[in-house]
Write a structure and sequence with these properties.
It contains 2 helices and 19 strands. It is mainly beta. The chain has 2 domains: 123 residues, no CATH class; 162 residues, Beta Barrel (Porin). It starts with a helix and ends with a strand. InterPro entries: LA_2272-like.
Length: 355
């Protein structure tokens, strides 16, 4: 029995998620039915005060045990599993899976929410809409034209007017601000991958994404077995050419943000990063190191950069989310900086060349 119910649930869920187009109306009248109760629509529906079941129907209250469906709803729809409104809805929709094929105004709560045009507040793990106006909160949020605020682990939209708050934000263009580790503006920003070597770490890879005056970055730092012998890194290009990749065994991670200033044909990037700290044997410690980096470079063929980098490695900050990370004194300049320097290249893989 449970297996059959699960199969039915999967079929209905597939229908809800991929049948986005509103079906054309073949009736001219709408039958208003205040209350609709259902176990599995339309086979078990009970319509209170229904005048004609063959007409398109509008309900004020829909309660379903497994799958509830109606054409229009002004009011509240509730189900522990699936609610599907084929046309328009105004009010509150609460279910495991919510779908509205037309215009929605109000509040939507569920694990999976799918709407066509949405005005209001959408809360769930997976949220999708075509045109959105309001507030969208979930782990994964996706909209085509978006006006308002998106908050989630991953936020995706074509055109954004407002703000995105998430670990990863993706948009074609935006009027407003994005706050996150990486914010990809595919048509109006810049997204780059960088490769470089310096006197602290022999091989580094980073992804940078955002706008000209503010971008986020995520970085992999590969350290060698011979970490204490850093003098050998002064001839970095020769070292990289002569050292097989398998000698780079420890991987550190860095996060941060930066800004760019352009003076043709040169550009200058200033970055602040927090990266993993290792001891002299290559063991990762429970500390982050604050680093200020300055990159000076030039662009050729519109998408390729070459640069030199100088970094000031500052305080060691206790990691794992301890209050020490938020201590302002740890971010002030001091006379105990160590200095590293290096060279590298960058490639623009999305966005606008030559800011």
């Amino acid at each position: 029995m449970l297996k059959k119910l699960f199969i039915i649930f999967v079929i209905i869920f597939h229908f809800c998620c991929y049948s986005y187009e509103v079906q054309p109306e073949s009736f001219t009248k709408i039958d208003t039915v205040p209350v609709r109760l259902s176990i599995l629509s339309p086979y078990t529906d009970i319509n209170f005060f229904s005048h004609n079941d063959n007409l398109l129907q509008e309900n004020y209250f829909l309660l379903s045990l497994i799958y509830g469906e109606t054409n229009y709803l002004t009011g509240v729809s509730i189900s522990p599993f699936i609610i599907n409104i084929t046309h328009d809805m105004s009010g509150a929709q609460i279910a495991l899976v919510n779908r509205v094929g037309g215009h929605f105004n109000g509040f939507q709560l569920g694990l999976f929410n799918d709407t066509h045009d949405f005005n209001g507040f959408q809360l769930g793990l997976w949220n999708r809409s075509t045109d959105f106006l309001g507030f969208q909160l979930g782990l994964y949020n996706k909209s085509d034209d978006f006006i308002g605020a998106q908050i989630g682990l991953i936020n995706i939209a074509n055109h954004v007017t407002g703000s995105q708050f998430g670990l990863i934000n993706i948009a074609d263009d935006q009027t407003g601000y994005s706050f996150g580790l990486l914010s990809f503006l595919l048509k109006t920003g810049q997204s780059k991958v960088s490769l470089w070597s310096d006197s602290e770490v022999p091989f580094n890879i980073s992804i940078k994404a955002g706008k000209k005056y503010f971008y986020g970055l995520f970085e992999f730092d590969f350290l060698s077995f011979n970490q204490p012998n850093r003098n050998q890194y002064y001839l970095m290009p020769l070292y990289l050419a002569a050292t097989p990749f398998y000698y780079l065994h420890e991987i550190g991670y860095s996060i941060g943000f930066g800004t760019q200033i352009t003076y043709e044909p040169l550009w200058l990037e200033s970055e602040i990063k927090w990266h993993d700290l290792f001891d002299e044997t290559g063991k990762k410690l429970n500390y982050l190191q604050l680093q200020y980096s300055f990159l000076l470079g030039t662009t050729f063929e519109k998408k390729y950069d070459i640069f030199g980098v100088v970094s000031f490695n500052s305080h060691n900050i206790e990691g794992n989310g301890t209050p020490d990370v938020l201590n302002p004194e740890k971010y002030l300049p001091n006379w105990n900086y160590t200095i590293s320097y290096g060279v590298g290249v960058q490639y623009l893989f999305a966005g606008v060349p030559n800011w």
